[in-house]
């Protein structure tokens, strides 16, 4: 007896970002509010990072609220409703429940049930990881429209006395809807990890230690210099690979939207990639700080809102962070 042949799904040949939204924590916290416990100064933080303020959410706003607000904007921008969404992916490292996933709750809040829903943990690379997955889900036929959200309330994991990372961090969420397209709108994702450097950016201790050893609430730490060097020297080649894979040259780009970690990292990447002056470089870090998975969509939202780039612009985006993990792709902006 011959075995029956399975039907395997296939989807449309191309995908693009159909709509985008972003919300920032409602409080703009200036450097001077943070420098006391870390023996720092407004001048030092501006010079070394570019940050002037970071957006932080108040006690009444949580990760889900930020994610939902960004998701609703992205749906509106795409001209879709929750009912049009087949899968919801939330990238976050600051959601306060191990389970269930934030994505399932967001799917319910926006009326996307019974959409597939799951969270991913890829820190500051999480948005680009999500775009790569959404692109693959649509083109495989597993979903028609996918909502990707990067949402973080980093301020919940801040130790005010820590000089390694806390002063960089902000809160916010960015979201996009990925769906079918007549023309290519998302280039190949170049991604990877290096777990041998897991200690470089980390949670101070595990939940088990919090429970058994009364170690207290965990916060974030980083080995700033190692991360800085890794980002500067190893991420530009990843971004270049994403350009090459998309068949795009630097002078054909309209915008460069790297993870908003440090203005000096961005400067060096621009130099290494030999981006011409015509390429608009996202600098949302100056006001918003580092919002991890939310940083690239928020920086994109600003460029579009301020008219620095227009719909249809070609942007190179790259996320990198705790893991260490990274992902980059060229996208057409909605
Ligand atoms: C954190 C970071 C801003 C520190 O800047 P840096 O230039 O590397 O600082 P260094 O650790 O080399 O320290 C330089 C000096 O500043 C001091 N310093 C360090 N942190 C400081 C702070 N928060 N405020 C004031 N002074 C500080 C150090 O004590 C040192 O002083 P010394 O020269 O007298 O010894 C920088 O390393 C960075 O941005 N790293 C990558 C961050 C990142 O991208 N993280 C997230 C990835 S997702």
TrEMBL record:
Catalytic activities:
malonyl-[ACP] + acetyl-CoA + H(+) = 3-oxobutanoyl-[ACP] + CO2 + CoA
Show the coiled coil region(s). none
Keywords (alphabetical) are: Acyltransferase, Cytoplasm, Fatty acid biosynthesis, Fatty acid metabolism, Lipid biosynthesis, Lipid metabolism, Multifunctional enzyme, Transferase
Catalytic residues identified in the record = 124, 259, 290
Where found in the cell?
Cytoplasm
**Pfam families for this protein:** ACP_syn_III (PF08545), ACP_syn_III_C (PF08541)
Region (ACP-binding) residue ranges read 260-264
Every copy of the Beta-ketoacyl-[acyl-carrier-protein] synthase III C-terminal domain together lies at: 243-331
InterPro entries according to UniProt = ACP_syn_III_C, ACP_syn_III_N, FabH, Thiolase-like
Pathway(s) per entry: Lipid metabolism; fatty acid biosynthesis
First-level EC class: transferase
* GO MF annotation terms: beta-ketoacyl-acyl-carrier-protein synthase III activity
- As recorded in UniProt, its EC number(s) are 2.3.1.180
Residue limits of the Beta-ketoacyl-[acyl-carrier-protein] synthase III N-terminal domain? 118-195
Top-rank taxon, per record: Bacteria
Describe the task this protein carries out: Catalyzes the condensation reaction of fatty acid synthesis by the addition to an acyl acceptor of two carbons from malonyl-ACP. Catalyzes the first condensation reaction which initiates fatty acid synthesis and may therefore play a role in governing the total rate of fatty acid production. Possesses both acetoacetyl-ACP synthase and acetyl transacylase activities. Its substrate specificity determines the biosynthesis of branched-chain and/or straight-chain of fatty acids.
Domain writeup: The last Arg residue of the ACP-binding site is essential for the weak association between ACP/AcpP and FabH.
The protein's matches in NCBIfam families, at most eight in alphabetical order, are given as: fabH, PRK09352.1
On subunit structure and binding partners, the annotation says: Homodimer.
> What protein family is recorded?
Belongs to the thiolase-like superfamily. FabH family.
The name under which this protein is listed is Beta-ketoacyl-[acyl-carrier-protein] synthase III
């Amino acid at each position: 007896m011959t075995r029956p042949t399975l039907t395997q799904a296939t989807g449309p040949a191309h995908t693009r970002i159909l709509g985008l939204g972003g919300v920032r924590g409602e409080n703009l916290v200036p450097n001077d509010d943070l420098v006391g416990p870390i023996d720092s100064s407004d001048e030092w933080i501006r010079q070394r990072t570019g940050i002037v303020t970071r957006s932080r959410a108040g006690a009444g706003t949580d990760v889900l609220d930020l994610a939902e607000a960004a998701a609703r904007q992205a749906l509106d921008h795409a001209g879709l409703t929750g009912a049009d969404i087949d899968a919801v992916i939330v990238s976050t490292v600051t959601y306060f429940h191990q389970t269930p996933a934030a994505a399932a709750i967001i799917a319910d809040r926006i009326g996307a049930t019974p959409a597939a829903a799951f969270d991913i943990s890829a820190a500051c690379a999480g948005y680009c990881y999500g775009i790569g997955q959404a692109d693959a889900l649509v083109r495989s036929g597993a979903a028609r429209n996918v909502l990707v959200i990067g949402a973080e309330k980093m301020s919940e994991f801040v130790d005010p006395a820590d000089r390694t990372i806390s002063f960089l961090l902000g809160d916010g969420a960015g979201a996009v809807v990925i769906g079918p397209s007549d023309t290519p709108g998302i280039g190949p994702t170049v991604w990877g990890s290096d777990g041998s450097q897991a200690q470089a950016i980390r949670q101070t201790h595990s939940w088990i230690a919090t429970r058994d050893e009364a170690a207290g609430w965990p916060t974030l730490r980083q080995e700033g210099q190692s991360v800085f060097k890794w980002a500067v020297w190893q991420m530009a080649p990843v971004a270049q690979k994403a350009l090459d894979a998309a068949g795009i040259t630097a002078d054909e780009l309209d915008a460069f939207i790297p993870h908003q970690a440090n203005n000096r990292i961005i400067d060096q990447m621009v130099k290494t990639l030999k981006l011409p002056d015509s390429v608009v470089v996202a600098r949302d870090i100056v006001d918003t700080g580092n919002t991890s998975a939310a940083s690239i969509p928020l920086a994109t939202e600003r460029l579009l809102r301020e008219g620095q780039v227009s719909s249809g612009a070609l942007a190179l985006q790259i996320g990198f962070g705790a893991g260490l993990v990274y992902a980059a792709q060229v996208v057409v902006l909605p």
